[in-house]
Amino acid sequence: MKLEGFGLFVEDMGRMIRFYRDVLGFAIKEDEDTSNVYLIKDGTLFLLYGRKDFEQMTRRKYEYLKGANGHFEIALYVDTFDEVDAEFARVTAMGAEPVMPPETEPWGQRTCYIADPEGNLIEIGSFNRPFASRSEDTNGTA
């Protein structure tokens, strides 16, 4: 099997579209009252799917956490340490919930965390070089 992408099951589609489109810059073209967003971001499938629609489709009820949750993260990469700091400042000024301000970790990555409006964690990080060179350094295991 090959990883195709990932999706988020969302409560408030309009709010989540505005966040991912207007704050993080995802190219979402659907109207805010849609039940499903489907797009390719940097070669990866990204979905927003309305919780009620998904439950109806699967004929099941699910449990959803409120607030910041630690089930997974979405990792976004920028090329420089300065960009980590600048993006953290920019997105938190636009309403992203700050979780952890930028820090340089012992393994050499500068990273920070924010949360989207429904509490999903988003990492913005860098190894202070372009992502392509980072992938080559790790033989494609990054």
Please explain how this structure is put together.
The chain has 142 residues and is of the alpha/beta class. Helices cover 27% and strands 31% of the residues. It folds into 2 domains: 1-64, 2,3-Dihydroxybiphenyl 1,2-Dioxygenase, domain 1; 67-142, Roll (2,3-Dihydroxybiphenyl 1,2-Dioxygenase, domain 1), CATH 3.10.180.10. Residues 138-142 have low confidence and may be disordered.
List keywords for this structure.
alpha/beta; 2,3-Dihydroxybiphenyl 1,2-Dioxygenase, domain 1; 2 domains; four-stranded mixed sheet; three-stranded mixed sheet; 27% helix; globular; disordered C terminus
Strand count, sense and barrel status of the largest sheet are: 4 strands, mixed
The number of helical runs is 4
Secondary structural class = alpha/beta
Domains, number? 2
Specify Rg, calculated over alpha carbons.
16 Å
Residue share in β-strands = 25-35%
What is the averaged pLDDT score?
Answer: 92
